[in-house]
């Protein structure tokens, strides 16, 4: 730190030095005048004896200076002047860098927010999520069941604390329009485990975790603000959830987002209730009836995740033996970091983006390296002269690196501006399903990244030219002739850099092409339902208002009747679960199968006419009718996937299966497949039941589907009027067209496609600029050679071909390298492809063709210039 | 006669040694320092007066001397250089090594 202090006191030191010297001279002059000299004589004599004041002052000052630093400063000044003097070069470099660094910084900013964002809990690295797979049923991450949770909790020796959670939603009534609110049930141990305390009020007490005494609720900071006007006396007040009174016991801090930390704000829980398991779930017979309980644990300090995994497996084996799990019910517990829970699905996408944006940066760096190399050749004279008059090699390399670092630094500033714009754009247009995207910001870590990136890249693209320049023999400055032939190695370097660019562009274009192909295949593949002219809106008939299912049926049928009379509406139906939005699995057992031979299938309870309203084809059998009543034999409609899987080569009609402890269901129809979780996963086996025949936990939530030319958001007021005229307490929410369900499902994919496409086009542009530069430079260097050739009889087209073939060689080499690279890089794409193989031959062929056209176009202008060489002019300058 | 445009020509540290020794007697300003060295050496050492200053700056930097305001013989305000404790210690070390070296050189000269 001493040097820093010296740096700041330096101006004062310099002043004192000048003063001392002035005083010295004044004293001396006075003495000499005392001896009888005139003032002028005395001054002259004093200065002679003192020596050169300027030189002495400078040498004295040097004592306080830092030689390396200040000569770098001088280099910087020189570099800045150089850049100012060639604005075309500088602007090209800066734009290229701004693109490369900006895109990388923006993607890093998003990755940093999404993947590396620390969870706002105490020591989040020790938190793990425990979930089970059902390998024999092919279901993954089903959570655990209530009783299994209790076993894991009491028998484990690896966690200092465990907690259960479950998502839920409620109708909040009594305050303005009825509202649907996302909530979570959490056990009393959850908040201490996470290390979070309510900002107001208290945590749940252990006895509130019991069914019957669980009417306590914690509200989110946001809900407290929006719904209760931040009233400080909210604690102790009562609110109505699904028509039952709950006591508010506290308000959570604004940073608390549990369990879906990364979910968009519309899906985050706003209420937390105690994890009170229904008594039904705790009956020994119902041990594996329902999974879906989330289990989070805090590892003891000395326990590794592997040990925890082993312990969980041991406990599971024990209770599976004890309770005689059999047939297809076998659970395999596994643990993973809690931080990965919310962002796991975004990871492949982000890695893909990072890889492609890095390719863009490499191409950009290659461009600048080539520009610098070209400039370096123009500066061989200067460097040779410097070497000849005594500069040493490290000094020259340093000066070149200072120049490229300055470029990099300026580029990073421009890049940060680009990144700010990009992040704002991504937030605006990015998919809502991308977790935490809205939190993305250019924070200091991201700025540091941009800076580090620019320095690293500037070293990469600066080193080759620097090395080449410093290898110039000093006598080169004495030769006046152009370095036409002695610059072979420089050209080789430029050519390989250009080849690398083409190779990288090739990879990005292939990736973009494959994604585009996947996307069009997805759009071309049958959705299974007709998304046109349809509109859905959800509501909830909660148990408190409608304790009697028969009474609910009446109201629902009345509503369907009223809605069907809206103008332009041709079909109306209801369903508890909609394709591409909801998923619910039930376990079923085929008639005549072993008692424990259970399989799972997607399920939805639908009203008669559902298939017509959704535009789903019934390929066999009949639809539900109003004659399928609660007292008539239970019936079901299955989809083609279930038919294929469980009734291969048989007629499914009339076959029977059992669901839970209900009676046997008879299959009366087969419906076309529809996608459930997303368009790019195969439609799973599915069972439809008649909502007016079957009662289940899912019965209360339902969506109205309206089809007709007028179906759309404009119809919502009319729908509201109809619904609320029957029951003004029914909440209406998540109104959407079926078309929007499809675009939402495709959002992440189209986002990837657009971004990767943009990167690929940028890469192509940068690479073509790069090729243009290399070929132009080649032509400029060879102009006298071309002149000689033409004087000796070469035709203009021969010269053109010579230049074009140079471009073609680069293109061929680049495409070959790119092909090899893309085989390697396509691993990153695997999760993003849909029924598309990376090696489909059409793709490389198209990309090669495209690159050839671009390279030949980029070489065409320089080739024309070469062909226009005037032989006389070239010969004269020789 | 040594023409000391570079104090190094004198020999390494000689100018510094003389400055330290002079300042040990009493603190003085640059001109007085130069005059003193000149008179005491009977003008044998014709030091270019200016070359005192880089040496003084070095010594300021290492902390052997420090500067402060004072008055000259003509009652003018001038910057006075004063020896510090570190400078005193340095002088002792330099003196003993200088004396050893001088003795060595004398012996070699005597033999030749």
List keywords for this structure.
heterodimer, A: 878 residues, alpha+beta, six-stranded mixed beta barrel, six-stranded mixed β-barrel, 23 helices, 15% strand, B: 112 residues, Arc Repressor Mutant, subunit A, three-stranded antiparallel beta sheet, two-stranded parallel ribbon, 58% helix, globular, disordered N terminus
Please give the structural blueprint.
The complex is a heterodimer of chains A (878) and B (112).
Chain A: H1 2-34, H2 39-50, H3 53-62, H4 67-85, H5 87-114, E1 127-133, H6 146-155, E2 159-173, E3 179-186, H7 190-194, E4 200-201, E5 216-219, H8 221-228, E6 238-241, E7 244-251, E8 271-274, E9 294-299, H9 305-322, E10 332-337, H10 338-341, H11 347-378, H12 380-388, H13 393-429, H14 444-470, H15 488-524, E11 534-540, H16 549-564, E12 569-575, E13 585-590, E14 599-606, H17 610-614, E15 618-621, E16 635-639, H18 640-646, E17 656-659, E18 664-671, E19 686-690, E20 701-708, H19 716-726, E21 733-737, H20 738-791, H21 796-825, H22 842-867, H23 871-877
Parallel strand pairs in A: 3-8, 5-7, 14-19, 16-18
Antiparallel strand pairs in A: 1-9, 1-10, 2-3, 2-6, 2-9, 4-7, 5-8, 6-7, 11-20, 11-21, 12-20, 13-14, 13-17, 15-18, 16-19, 17-18
Helix pairs in contact in A: 1-2, 1-3, 4-13, 5-11, 5-13, 5-14, 6-9, 11-14, 11-15, 11-20, 13-14, 15-20, 15-21, 15-22, 16-19, 20-21, 20-22, 20-23, 21-22
Chain B: E1 2-4, H1 7-10, H2 14-25, E2 28-29, H3 30-40, E3 45-47, H4 52-62, E4 65-71, E5 77-83, H5 85-111
Parallel strand pairs in B: 1-3
Antiparallel strand pairs in B: 2-5, 4-5
Helix pairs in contact in B: 2-5
Descriptive report:
The complex is a heterodimer of chains A (878) and B (112). Chain A is of the alpha+beta class and 878 residues long. Chain A has 5 domains: 2-65; 67-115 and 344-480, no CATH class; 127-342, no CATH class; 499-523 and 740-878; 542-729, no CATH class. Chain A has 23 helices and 21 strands. In chain A, a hairpin with a 2-residue loop joins strand 6 and strand 7. The longest helix of chain A is centred in the last third of the chain and has 54 residues, at 738-791. Chain A is globular, with a radius of gyration of 38 Å. Chain B has a single domain (2-111), classed as Orthogonal Bundle (Arc Repressor Mutant, subunit A), CATH 1.10.10.10. By secondary structure, chain B is an alpha+beta fold. At the A-B interface, helix 1 and helix 3 of A face helix 3 and helix 4 of B.
């Amino acid at each position: 730190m001493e040097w820093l202090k010296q740096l700041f006191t330096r101006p004062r030191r310099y002043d004192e030095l000048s003063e001392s010297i002035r005083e010295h001279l004044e004293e001396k002059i006075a003495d000499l005048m005392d001896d009888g000299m005139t003032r002028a004589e005395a001054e002259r004599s004093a200065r002679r004896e003192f020596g050169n004041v300027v030189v002495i002052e400078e040498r004295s000052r040097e004592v306080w200076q830092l030689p390396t630093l200040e000569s770098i400063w001088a280099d910087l000044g020189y570099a800045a002047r150089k850049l100012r003097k060639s604005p075309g070069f500088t602007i090209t470099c800066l734009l290229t860098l701004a693109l490369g660094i900006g895109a990388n910084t923006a993607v890093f900013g998003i990755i940093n927010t999404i993947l590396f964002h620390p969870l706002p809990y105490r020591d989040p690295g020790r938190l793990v999520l425990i979930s089970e797979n059902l390998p024999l049923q092919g279901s993954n991450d089903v959570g655990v069941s209530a009783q299994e949770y209790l076993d894991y909790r009491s028998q484990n020796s690896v966690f200092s604390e465990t907690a259960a959670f479950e998502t839920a939603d409620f109708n909040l009534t009594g305050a303005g329009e009825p509202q649907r609110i996302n909530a979570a049930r959490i056990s009393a141990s959850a908040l201490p485990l996470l290390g979070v305390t309510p900002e107001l009020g208290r945590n749940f007490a252990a006895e509130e975790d019991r069914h019957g005494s669980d009417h306590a609720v914690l509200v989110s900071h946001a809900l407290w603000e929006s719904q209760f006007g931040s009233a400080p006396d909210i604690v102790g007040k009562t609110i109505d959830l699904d028509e039952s009174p709950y006591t508010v016991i506290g308000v959570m801090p604004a940073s608390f987002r549990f369990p879906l930390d990364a979910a968009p704000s519309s899906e985050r829980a706003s209420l937390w209730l105690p994890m009170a398991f229904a008594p039904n779930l705790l009956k020994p017979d119902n041990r594996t009836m329902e999974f879906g309980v989330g289990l989070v644990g805090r590892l003891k300090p000395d326990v590794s995740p592997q040990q925890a995994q082993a312990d969980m497996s041991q406990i599971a084996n024990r209770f599976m033996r004890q309770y005689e799990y059999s047939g297809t019910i076998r659970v395999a517990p596994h643990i993973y970091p809690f931080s990965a829970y919310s962002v796991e699905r975004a990871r492949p996408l982000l890695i893909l983006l990072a890889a492609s944006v890095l390719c863009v940066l490499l191409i950009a760096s290659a461009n600048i390296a080539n520009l610098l190399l070209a400039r370096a050749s123009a500066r061989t004279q200067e460097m040779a002269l410097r070497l000849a008059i005594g500069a040493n090699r490290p000094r020259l390399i340093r000066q070149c690196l200072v120049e490229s670092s300055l470029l990099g630094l300026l580029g990073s500033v421009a890049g940060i501006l680009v990144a700010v714009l990009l992040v704002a754009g991504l937030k605006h247009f990015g998919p809502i399903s991308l977790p935490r995207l809205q939190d993305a910001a250019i924070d200091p870590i991201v700025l540091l990244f941009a800076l580090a990136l620019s320095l690293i890249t500037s070293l990469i693209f600066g080193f080759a030219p620097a090395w080449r320049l410093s290898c110039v023999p000093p006598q080169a400055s004495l030769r006046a002739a152009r370095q036409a032939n002695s610059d072979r190695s420089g050209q080789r370097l430029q050519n390989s850099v250009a080849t690398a660019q083409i190779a990288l562009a090739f990879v990005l274009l292939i990736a973009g092409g494959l994604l585009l192909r996947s996307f069009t295949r997805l759009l071309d593949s049958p959705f299974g339902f007709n998304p046109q002219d349809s509109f859905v809106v959800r509501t909830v008939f909660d148990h408190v208002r409608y304790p009697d299912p028969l009474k609910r049926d009446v109201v629902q049928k009345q509503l369907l009747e009223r809605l069907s009379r809206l103008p332009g509406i041709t079909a109306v139906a209801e369903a508890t679960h909609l394709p591409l939005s909801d998923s619910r699995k039930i376990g079923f057992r085929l008639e005549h199968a072993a008692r424990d031979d259970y399989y799972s299938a997607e399920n939805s309870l639908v009203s008669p006419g559902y298939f017509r309203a959704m535009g789903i084809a019934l390929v066999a059998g009949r639809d539900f009718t109003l004659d399928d009543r609660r007292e008539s034999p239970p019936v079901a409609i299955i989809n083609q996937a279930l038919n294929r899987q469980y009734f291969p080569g048989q007629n499914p009609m009339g076959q029977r299966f059992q669901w839970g402890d209900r009676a046997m269901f008879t299959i009366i129809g087969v419906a076309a497949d529809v996608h459930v979780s997303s368009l790019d996963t195969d439609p799973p086996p599915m069972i439809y039941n008649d909502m007016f025949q079957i009662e289940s936990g899912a019965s209360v939530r339902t969506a109205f589907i309206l089809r007709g030319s007028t179906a759309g958001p404009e119809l919502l007021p009319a729908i509201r009027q109809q619904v609320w005229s029957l029951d003004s307490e029914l909440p209406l929410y998540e109104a959407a067209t079926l078309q929007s369900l499809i675009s939402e499902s495709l959002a992440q994919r189209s986002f990837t496609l657009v971004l990767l496409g943009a990167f690929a086009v940028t890469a192509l542009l940068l690479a073509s600029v790069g090729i243009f530069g290399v070929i132009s430079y080649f032509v400029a260097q060879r102009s006298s050679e071309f002149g000689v050739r033409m004087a000796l009889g070469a035709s203009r087209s021969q010269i053109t071909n010579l230049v074009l073939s140079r471009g073609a060689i680069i293109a061929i080499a680049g495409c070959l390298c790119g092909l090899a690279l893309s085989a390697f890089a396509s691993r990153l794409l695997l999760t993003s492809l849909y029924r598309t193989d990376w090696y489909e031959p059409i793709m490389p062929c198209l990309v090669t063709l495209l690159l050839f056209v671009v390279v030949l176009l980029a070489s065409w202008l320089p080739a024309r210039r070469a062909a226009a060489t005037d032989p006389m002019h070239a010969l004269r300058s020789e | 006669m040594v023409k000391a445009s570079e104090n190094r020509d004198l020999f390494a540290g000689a100018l510094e040694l003389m400055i330290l020794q002079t300042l040990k007697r009493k603190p003085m300003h640059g001109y007085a320092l130069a005059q003193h060295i000149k008179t005491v050496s009977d003008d044998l050492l014709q030091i270019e007066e200016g070359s005192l200053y880089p040496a003084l700056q070095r010594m300021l930097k290492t902390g052997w001397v420090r500067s402060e305001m004072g008055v000259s013989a003509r009652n003018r305000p001038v910057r006075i250089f004063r020896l510090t404790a570190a400078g005193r210690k340095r002088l002792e070390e330099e003196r003993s090594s200088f004396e050893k070296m001088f003795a060595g050189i004398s012996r070699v000269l005597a033999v030749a």
